[in-house]
Amino acid sequence: MNAPVADPAAAPTGPSGEGAIVVLDKLSVGFGDRTVLNGIDLALRPREIFGIVGETGAGKSVLARAIIGLLPPGGDVTGGAVRYRGRPLDAFSPAEAGSYRGGKVALIGTNAKALLDPVARVGDQIARVVRAHTPMDARAARTRAIDLMREVGIVEPERRARAYPHELSGGMAQRIVIAMALAGNPEVLLADDATLGLDATVQAQVLESLVERSRDRGLSVLLITHDLGIVRHYCDRVAVIRDGRLVEEGPVGDFMAAPATGYSRDLLDAARARPALQAPLAAGDRPPLVDVRDLTMHFAVPGSVLPIKAVDGISFAIAPGETLALVGESGSGKTTAGQCLMRLIDNTDGRIFFDGRDVTDLKDRAFRPLRRHMQMVFQEPYVALNPRWRVADLLAEPLALVEPMTAAERARRVAELLALVHLDPRLADVRPHALTAGEQKRVGIARALATRPRFIVFDEPTTALDIRVRAQIIDLIRGLQSSMNLSALFITHDLNSVRSLAHRVAVMHLGKIVEQGDTEAIFERAEHPYTRKLLAAELPVDAEPAAAAP
Amino acid sequence: MASARSSRSVFARPGLVIGLGLLALQFIAIVFAPWIAPFPPTEANPLDSLQPPNAVHWLGTDEIGMDIFSRIVFATRVNLLIGFAAVALSLGVGVPVGLLVGYYRGLPSALVMRFFDFIQSFPVFVLGMALVAVLGQEIWSVVIVLCMLFVPMFARIVRAEVLSLRERPFIAAARCSGAGDFAIMFRHILPNAMTPVIVQVSVSIGMAILLTAGLSFIGAGVRLPSPEWGLMVSSGAQQMILGIWWIALFPGLAIVLSVLSFALLSDEAKRYVDTGRGGRAR
């Protein structure tokens, strides 16, 4: 998989390495008095795929913007320079800078749908970029646009070219953005978390075609990511950035085998799956705590006879102390299933039993006493916390379900909960917007734990978190599982965390459970083709790159 | 840091300074009217009628000899009382109604909304004349006419906010935490729905002052000799053609400045909200 470095002159490392296309020479970038990048030395050689890894706020995106010469407002290069083929960027005339951006170096951003013009057909948008770089008539540009779409793996490009962005899936939109980036025939592609938020299978396809195109065209790619699995599978070299400083740089193989710095080791450890959990003793003998039979949730579609079958007759049971992972891609209905369980929406058919009692038809008022035993941790931590409430109030709210308590008791319990999820007790007085994503997630978990429930639905507890924060959350949940004998439904598409957390796995696809079994068995001997596809799309940090390549 | 920034920016914003200045002027007029005004506002002196502005009657006198400056100062009380009362009452009714109508989306809510459509389909002035005919030419009739206009407006604003807020995950999370309908409506949704209402309050006070003046002008508002800006413009309008401009002009200017102050303040409120300092759920 490693591309041969064809240019012998590129072999010596170092910022001034000859033959390198883009060189960062002690580059520093500041916003006002805040230094975001601090003396970064990097060299991007021809035909290499270079991974940049770092956590949120490390300065990765600013690095990409500095290379393309478009720093966000307020940002300035405070030291050093970016050189393209030996010439510093600031020596470029405006016309040169214009053809440099897009023509020599192209940027692919996150959230492709937001990058596309919502009122123009995607084919026209690509054609517009083509004509911006090469003068040609509209018809030729259109043909070129369709060729580019075919090149990035879009089937039926003629038909797709007439689509508007909202008609495309996230993966398709990302491919369009890649086609736009390729339109100016650049030599360097900067992919800034380009596949963030895409489903695993789609992410693998998009990355695969991006890397393939780049190898075919002999491009250099700077792949900015926080996913070490991506680095492992697609990059030749890697650099780790932390707080605007370069921590470590080297070939991916060496880096994965023996990272040189403690920080890199931490990152790698955090990205690895935890050892498998002990299955709760004699789980089969005890009656299940949660028993779901033929759960069905159909949403009526206005103007259509056919409903959307979000959940289409699923059955599963969870024993006390057991964790079941509900795995599937977005749109598979797994979150809807969780909401039905919590009685947030009324399922159209099927029964839900909790502790032997049929709770399916209970009205909200009758169900409320049961809520202290069943809680949910919501997917997006920020939007699931009332922005106007202080953390202490958010944590105290569910306590009303337990028993009346005095203000002092409540304050003590809030402090206990904060300690339980390893949060600073001083955070009790702040509002959610002052918290980091990881802290918000912890508040969400603490809130669910407030009533000491017996069953918790975790909805995507590990998505959109930095590597180390994600590992901390996983460790936290593992600790709770063993110390509280908690039963849990763990809804996720993050297979790595499933390995670390779940005793059993149910794979959901288009509203149905296609396969169900012990975690070990599913990962080792998946039978259903969809499960295999899902497993194949995973980019584990440990596996050999060759194993994942088709 | 936030407080340092805001104290600096108070004076960096001409709109805010002018708006607050005019508002302060109006409050001074309301509180100190008897000391500021050189004459009693309803004292007619036929011997001094139709005097142009001079040293004794600073802004002149009207056709029955009442001092225009004194009347403008005292009218601030009437006009602002009507404006504030109408907006406060409308808030008190419109906000809870909007909250309920947005939260429970059944037949009763639909009926309330259609009733609002019904009220709002009447032109304000027709409604005003009809109500004044029934209730009599009192200050409170004007307040009720304005409420008819503002209650549906506030209710619709709140309802629109509630419709989007009720689908947000933090509401589902609150339900999981055991919050009932009442707690969800008043403790979770309402505080997050109030931001656009607060912006609208200032605009509405300005609108109320303008409409009060308009209603008085067509004779559906306050009765003579009560000092009221619209009424004064109305009586002055008849003299305008004779070249007697001061009777209508000065109360007209008072209306302009008063409405301007509330319009400026609502712009500032909007900017304050938009910059996200309210910590809005968005």
UniProtKB/TrEMBL annotation, chain A:
GO terms for biological process: peptide transport; transmembrane transport. PROSITE patterns: ABC_TRANSPORTER_1, ABC_TRANSPORTER_2. InterPro entries: AAA+_ATPase (IPR003593), ABC_transp_ATP-bind (IPR050319), ABC_transporter-like_ATP-bd (IPR003439), ABC_transporter-like_CS (IPR017871), Oligopep_ABC_C (IPR013563), P-loop_NTPase (IPR027417). Its main location: membrane. Residues 22-268, 290-535 form the ABC transporter domain. It comes from the Bacteria. It is found in: Cell inner membrane. It is a peripheral membrane protein. One of its GO terms (cellular component) is plasma membrane. The keyword Zinc does not apply. Pfam families: ABC_tran (PF00005), oligo_HPY (PF08352). One of its GO terms (molecular function) is ATP hydrolysis activity. CDD domains: ABC_NikE_OppD_transporters. Keywords: ATP-binding, Nucleotide-binding, Transport. Belongs to the ABC transporter superfamily. This is ABC transporter ATP-binding protein. The lineage of its organism: Bacteria, Pseudomonadati, Pseudomonadota, Alphaproteobacteria, Hyphomicrobiales.
TrEMBL record, chain B:
It is found in: Cell membrane. Keywords: Cell membrane, Membrane, Peptide transport, Protein transport, Transmembrane, Transmembrane helix, Transport. Its main location: membrane. One of its GO terms (cellular component) is plasma membrane. It is a multi-pass membrane protein. The chain crosses the membrane at residues 15-37, 80-103, 115-133, 139-158, 197-220, 240-265. Pfam families: BPD_transp_1, OppC_N. The keyword Transmembrane helix applies. One of its GO terms (biological process) is transmembrane transport. Residues 76-266 form the ABC transmembrane type-1 domain. The keyword Cell membrane applies. PANTHER family: D,D-DIPEPTIDE TRANSPORT SYSTEM PERMEASE PROTEIN DDPC-RELATED (PTHR43386:SF1), OLIGOPEPTIDE TRANSPORT SYSTEM PERMEASE PROTEIN APPC (PTHR43386). Belongs to the binding-protein-dependent transport system permease family. This is ABC transporter permease. It comes from Methylobrevis albus.
